[in-house]
Amino acid sequence: MVLLGSLVNSAAIVLGGSIGLVLKKGLSDRLANAVMNALALCVLYIGVSGMLKGENVLITILSMVAGTLVGDGLQLDKKINQLGDTIEKMVASPNEGVSVSKGFVTASLLFCVGAMAIVGALQSGLTGNHDTLFAKSLIDGIAAIVMASSLGIGVLLSAGLILVYEGGISLFANILAPLLTDSVINEMTCVGSLLIVGLALNMLKLTDLKIMNYAPAVFFPILFGFFM
Fold this sequence. Notes:
Blueprint lengths: L3 H21 L4 H23 L5 H18 L1 H16 L8 H13 L2 H13 L3 H21 L2 H18 L1 H4 L5 H22 L16 H5 L4
Helix pairs in contact: 1-7, 1-8, 2-7, 2-10, 3-10, 4-5, 5-7, 5-8, 6-7, 6-8
């Protein structure tokens, strides 16, 4: 099964997120805020670490500019928040001041950005070896417990995007493999990590960046990698 690794990864996020939601009910407001701030510092660390993988700062700059023009033009942040509000009304579960869309965006970027997601999905599609995605599933499942305990049900919803993202790479691995060189993957990780740093700053309430408007930037290193 080409999609086995992606399915396991998504299931791990749902399972971990569900455990986190159960734990969330037992947290006081003071403790929930403390966990949120601790998580934000971890997210900041992940972002800074990923940024160091970049090899060409010009690709990073051009990708951020081009991605922002696309994302802002499509008003992705507004649309994802509207979707989050709709889902929140459907589940009829107030999220204690944390929007569904915030949890969804934060978790989605964390789980999608990085070499393990891309390389693991390529391995699944090209060789049927799912070991990398299985290892990533364990890591993501544990992370989902912590994240859902502070960010709520939006974390679980990110499992759907992970399935589409990793599954799509696996299904089209033969086409994508020549494009996703080590250099391109590093640049995608660098750009995505910049967005993760922005998420961390938002979580710490230092900024109010519309991160989803920048999200298309993650894919532009594939294009600019041809010319630089």
